[in-house]
Peptidase M16
Amino acid sequence: MNLRKVFLVFALALSAVLPVSLSAQQMQPLPIDTAVRYGKLPNGLTYIVRHNANPQKRANYYIAQTVGSILEEDNQAGLAHFLEHMAFNGTKNFPGKNLISFLERIGCRFGADLNAYTAFDETVYTIMDAPTQDINVVDSCLLIMHDWSNNITLDGKEIDEERGVIHEEWRTRDNGDMRAMTYTLEKAFPNNKYGKRMPIGTMEVVDNFPHEDLRAYYKKWYRPDQQCVIVVGDIDPDYVVKKLTEIFADIKAPENAAERYYVEVEDNEEPISIIATDPEVTSTRVQIMYKRDIMPREMKATVAGFMLNYLNRIASSIINERFMEMMMKPNAPFLQAGAYQGPYMTIAKTKDALNFIAIARENEVKKSLDALVAEIMRIKKFGFTAAEYDRARTNLIKSFENSYNERGKRTNGSYTEEYKSFFIDGGYIPGIETEYEMIKMMAPQLPLELVNNAIKEYISVDKNVVLTVTGPKKDGITYPTEAELTEMYKQATKQDVEAPKEEVSDTNLMERAPKGGKIAGVKKNQMYGATEVKLKNGVTVYLKTTDYKDDEVQLYAVKKGGSSLYGEKDALNVKVVNDVLDLGGLGKFDAIALQKALTGRSVDVSASVDLHEDKISGSSTVKDFETMMQLVYLTFTDMREDQDAYEAHKQRQVERIKSVKTNPLYSLRDTIAYVFYNNNPIIKPLNEEDYEKIDYKRVMQIARERYANANGMQFFFVGNIDEATMIPLIEKYIGALPSNKKQTPKTNEDKKLTLRKGKMDLFYKKDMDTPMAQIYDMIHAQMPYNLKNVLVMDALVAVLDQCYTASIREAEGGAYSVGVTGEVQFDPMNEAYILVNFPTDPARADEMNKLVYVELDNIANNGPKKEYLDKTLVNMRKSYEENLRKNAYWLYNLKRYYTRGADWAGIYLDTLNSITTTDLQNFVKEFMKQDNRLQVRLSSTKTEAEKAANQPAK
């Protein structure tokens, strides 16, 4: 496509609508936010530093590099990613595992707060939420950035030990979707490095490369002119810049440095068609891409770049709204569909693309392709309507307004991600104050014609078209050939299409306001500083005002009830209540019309029916609080049925059930949950036949019954609450909810989930393209639900994570990552479980599985390592301090205290500080004493060695 034409039209349009002062500067870079310290050191290193106290006394540190797998040669495939791993295995100032150990001692968990990733064109290392009270910690984090930049040790012994870890990471990732993607990239980038540089690399290289190859790659590409250190947090920017300058002064700009080239992506005159199938892929995906040149980096930094982003977001929003409306109809031509814009194949730095994607039913590739192309041609011929543009523009302006209103509470993580993208991809960082003023000034002036002209120009129809189909390879499913797919597309572009219909959305949610209720009493509670409002309809409301967010109010409401109250005849119906109760919309609006009616409002309300409780959750801005109250009122009084929307949902679910059968892990997880909970029918997953027995009208009747009586319900609100404004609205809407005080809330506690007692081993075999054994080990015990047990469980999970990282991952190279989860379940269950799961080589499955119990037995017999527990408790205290300034934390504590009488917030820190190694030892002993265990394993029929031996010679 002629992107230069788009740029020219766009620039002329901007000249027409911008004030003279801005119009003259539209091709000048936007100024950098004055709160940002931005610069370059003499050696070429870029730095971006900002003070931000959310969370307080914490900082994030990134070192971003414009270096990735695309720079590898064929004999280096995988070295960029391998090097990323080695950054955690010894540096000049932090030998061995000292880097990880130091950060864990200050409360940063490996994986959660300390991590990295490698992509085609970038590698980024991150330290998150490091404490800043001690200036020595700040200095040490900067020193880590320095070492990652230029002083990774790359010890030969450590390199060899890491080969096994990366091999297991490859095993974890090499599933059907990854294999289909790898094949697709090879075809989508013919004769191009992007087609053969997956960051994981090849195991032939990973297992065998000489140590010097990795060292040479590191020396060649890790250098300051390709690096940016980003520090955002509760720090003194002047100090950080000064210290950073000192620490990085010893790193010199290399002489005769290799050129950091960017791989160009070729145009294609005829469509490229790709069919990729695999036995483990779970769905059929049809994608149409329209490649285009990228916006020049220097232009991305200007007003024109800002507004082109605006245009792209508007277009994607409108297209997705159209697809959503189509999906809600029965017998829709696809199960799901959407559009987005970004790098070609999500990875190219030199080509962008407009992408249309559909999830097709089995054997319906043509039907989905035709539907996508019909909508594409409708856009190409007619563009968007004024009503569509108005909704999308209003919502986009609202999103900028929300960001502006919360500008003082933006998180460190949000800033560091923005600045990372700015360094790697270019763009602008003028600050939300500037961006909000720009969008308010420009958006109303940019005509629909401009958006339509640009989107039509994006759709080239013939040139630079790429068509892909990925799907399951199994009996009974056929796919077109690549030539047939191309011809299908060409024929589809000849369809006659009608213009989209112009429509005006009704935005008045309620025809008339409720008469309102009455307040029975208001009092200020000592506990958590909450205001208690009792309403005459039996509802109690608690409000806690905070300053943690400037423009947020969170809602949670609950009463006894739930699906436990229904008998066997409704066993299937109650399983889908939460999936379908909002499909029909509310009041006079179906689901799509409701979303349109809420244009320009930031509000969300959802209802859910659990086993023993009926719930409402929601959130809104301060301005949209009344809208949230109206949605709550309509949820209780006017749930809407939509048989067509349900039929469409049912068809999607049945297709999903059919499709996931191709992936053995999906079926395995369902089996585990069902067996673990003692074959309880409540847990049993629905199958295709079950959906034929579900009665949608009965489901909606159950949903209405659960919300027909608000008596006894407790509502909790936390956030920027103005009681003088909001309590009258609560009285008006929540006070008017239907109520029958003769019926007190109840539930059926006899109907509960209980864990299987005793021991059970389940072993399954299945042929897999990549040999793998997936191991699940679960132990459980009766355990009272109280704060001490919950905290001991959290600590134990973190300690076990460290144990298995040291033994299974690092010492044995037996797994890339070992997942550990645990929970103490509240009454009426009062049970606790620990689940350990990981994939490994089938040949080593028994050996690795034994290590799971070796670590548990060691804790039961000797207690955990004090070092592990100390690190864990530091991290838990750090998380607690951060949670104290989150609305969601206080919402949950209010709910727990006023529904269960448990004041955990008041005793949390004392309880946490009381935990000892003996507590963890006794905790695990109790599990071992009760001796309830479930082991499930799925293994491929062949080991990796056996599979390799049967491969034909190349």
User: Anything to note?
Assistant: Residues 519-736 form a domain with the Cytochrome Bc1 Complex; Chain A, domain 1 fold (CATH 3.30.830.10). The mean pLDDT is 95. The CA atoms of residues 58 and 131 lie 5 Å apart. Residues 303-327 form the longest helix (25 residues).
